[in-house]
């Protein structure tokens, strides 16, 4: 009852798209750059790909094995890892950067298009969750109708088992 | 209109129930008090773990052996410092207790780190994710006729030229990343799962492997150290006073020295052996799991090699021990949000009036929205769904038809080893549902809307957000539910 009224008053979530991990390079954190078809009408392909590529770059930087990470590791080991109680690891620093970047992207690019990125960290680094919101106007409701019917078709398919 | 339950593990349902409450069942009054105190995520963690210090410390359920480990180390070291060190520091050098002290400190530090930290647990999939995966799996498999169990779900990935199969975890509802494995003792998927170690009372995985390795390495040194110096002590004394006299000299110490030696002797072999084994594993960048299964051994085929190895021993070691430490993914001490931080206004509003809510996830709300459209289109349709129990072990509600999990709709048809009911039931058991397969999803989503109707139907105590079960066991209950669903629909349509 109330939820419907709320719904009418504001944008509502139509569906969510999940960009999965790309494991072709091993266990390092990378996401697939394949453009999800559901976003076809909502955002330019290039913008999306750039976001994902930048995120991939960030994660690669966080997991990079090189001089500074060795130093950090050795220092931590020498202190029996007690140093982690007071120091922030390199990875955590990069994660903060990522979080800021995502927020930035949301504000500038995705929210104006009715989309929202969720930080993969909140999803266990498994997916980049993109929430698609529908507008309240008629064009929006038709898109939500189509998305619900498509998901309904999916559900029906499942039920058919 | 009380969405009743949702008590128990569904602790965050409180947030959605704020003003619509009229009744207060005994279940809820204690929760009302807690409403002002937000729950932390560790309190509703679905795995079998124990948490201490308000979520800072995380261990497996069985910690008895860990305490044994602690006692053994403390007692052995304590005896060494108390009885052997005074003599040795006089006779030889005071560096001995100093080094012993450092080693002991290192051992304890790494042990506690290994035991208390998150080994790399993968959080379970949100209902949305699980539903999306289901959809994709169905598309990949093609919709087969109901009643057959779909083939086991695997994805193949090529990593560095080697084909690796990713398995689907039915408990966590995710495709496990490479090298991850599900620990049955802790009921979690753990990244780069090595093994579950009862001695440290925790799994050993990506995040605590280096601590574990440093622990067994330093413990090897410590036991060898203690053993060597205990023997030295006895030898020195016996040189002075004769062997038997040396032992007689300290009658109180005799059993201790002996005990110490015995304990050390056995520990030395096992611990040193274990350290050696793990050194080998690290240098070839394998996990215990992979080694035991022989995943990368040449015996499987000439072309079989380890795709994760960096090629040389040095890099492998450095990567394992000094590589970056990834953060914990489960955010134990975070507070449970009523919904994910989003375009704030709308979702929150919806959550507030959740009404239906026994679920905590925002997706339920969203599904509600979608479902209401279905409802209005579909008029009166039996709500009743026999939904496959994804994790029947998680929901011990036999005989209770619990309507839940809108998102579970799309998990229909997913077979679970433990329960054989699912597809068969939906197809054969309930005839009045079969014609409505097309609108399954809608029906599932109706569930939350049903809240206005009898609370008994609600998943009070169907705690888990993403696993929803309807064990439909009697037609009688179906009828009552049907009735209720119609009532609910009527209410909805009057909006």
TrEMBL record, chain A:
**Chain spans, region Disordered:** 136-161
Instruction: Give start-end positions of Low complexity composition bias.
Output: 138-150
User: How is this protein positioned relative to the membrane?
Assistant: Lipid-anchor
Q: Name one cellular component (GO) term.
A: Golgi membrane
Entry keyword set: Membrane
Which ranges carry the Golgin subfamily A member 7/ERF4 domain?
17-129
* Top-level taxonomic group: Eukaryota
Q: What does the entry give for GO biological process?
A: protein targeting to membrane
Compartments it resides in: Golgi apparatus membrane
Q: What is its main location?
A: Golgi
Q: Where is the composition biased (Gly residues)?
A: 151-161
**Which InterPro entries does this UniProt record tie to the protein?**
Golgin_A_7/ERF4, Ras_palmitoyltransferase
**Keyword Membrane, does the record have it?**
yes
Protein family according to the UniProt entry = Belongs to the ERF4 family.
Q: What is this protein called?
A: GOG7B protein
From TrEMBL, chain B:
A GO cellular-component term linked to this record? membrane
Q: Which GO terms describe its molecular function?
A: protein-cysteine S-palmitoyltransferase activity
Q: Would you kindly state one Gene Ontology biological process term found in this protein's UniProt entry? A: protein targeting to membrane
- The chain positions of domain Palmitoyltransferase DHHC read 165-293
State the EC number(s). 2.3.1.225
- Which parts pass through the membrane? 65-83, 95-112, 211-236
Annotated region (Disordered) at 1-39
Q: Which UniProt keywords apply?
A: Acyltransferase, Membrane, Transferase, Transmembrane, Transmembrane helix
Recorded topology in the membrane: Multi-pass membrane protein
Compartments annotated for it: namely:
Membrane
**Catalytic reaction list:** L-cysteinyl-[protein] + hexadecanoyl-CoA = S-hexadecanoyl-L-cysteinyl-[protein] + CoA
Q: Which InterPro entries would you find in this protein's record?
A: Palmitoyltrfase_DHHC, PFA4/ZDH16/20/ERF2-like
Residue ranges annotated as compositionally biased, kind Low complexity, are: 19-28
**What is the top EC class of this enzyme, as a single word?**
transferase
For domains, the record's comment is: The DHHC domain is required for palmitoyltransferase activity.
- The family this protein is said to belong to: Belongs to the DHHC palmitoyltransferase family.
Q: Per its record, how is this protein called by name?
A: Palmitoyltransferase
Supply the gene name: Zdhhc14
